[in-house]
Structure formats: structure tokens, C-alpha cells
Design brief:
Order of helices and strands: HEEHEEH
Number of helices: 3
Radius of gyration: 13 Å
Shape: globular
Helix content: 25-40%
Largest sheet: 4 strands, antiparallel
Structural class: alpha+beta
């Protein structure tokens, strides 16, 4: 997987494959609402493990029944790369197991 910045067209194409995700301030973002704070904390733990596996980390916020991610690639000057979309895709696979509403 490359950490080269993606073109605007590549970003738009990949974003179309990730319902619920959007761009905010140049970052790929998504918030999840869960049934309880405990469920949200569990999702955060699984996201953190996935980030370590990818060696790619997002801004990850645990709120009351919510988890919010903001992703971009620091080593690419804050641009969006393949790594950002791979992390988003992997988080999307985790979310249903945690009861995302």
C-alpha cells in the first residue's frame, strides 16, 4: 500500500464506496453511534488494534455512545492516501459487530 497522495478523482471514487464517510478539513471522517458507552469503548479498542496492524493511526475520539475518526496521512503532508481508505474500510468491517446504530 502506498502513502502517495491520491488525486481528487481517486478520493471521490473511493469515498463513493464508503457510505457514511465524508471529507472534513481535508480529512476522511466518520462518526458511529452505538447502543452504550461500553460498546463504543469496545469499538475503539478494536480500531486501535487495526491501526497498529496497519501502522497507520487516526484521530480517534470516544464520546458518550459515539466513536469518531478523522484520518489523513501525516507522512504525506496531511494528504489522503491508500492507507486512509484501507483503514476506513477495515473500520467499516468492525463496526457491525459492535452494534453500530
Amino acid at each position: 500500500m502506498t502513502s502517495e497522495p491520491l488525486s481528487q478523482k481517486e478520493i471521490e471514487d473511493r469515498l463513493a464506496e464508503l457510505p457514511g464517510w465524508s471529507l472534513d478539513g481535508g480529512k476522511l471522517t466518520r462518526s458511529y453511534r452505538l447502543g452504550s458507552h461500553f460498546a463504543a469503548a469496545g469499538l475503539v479498542v478494536h480500531i486501535a488494534r487495526t491501526q497498529d496492524e496497519l501502522d497507520h493511526h487516526s484521530d480517534l475520539t470516544l464520546g458518550y455512545h459515539t466513536v469518531t475518526l478523522a484520518v489523513h496521512t501525516h507522512s504525506a503532508g496531511g494528504a489522503l492516501t491508500d492507507l486512509d481508505f484501507e483503514l476506513a474500510r477495515r473500520v467499516e468491517e468492525l463496526a457491525p459487530a459492535h452494534g453500530v446504530q
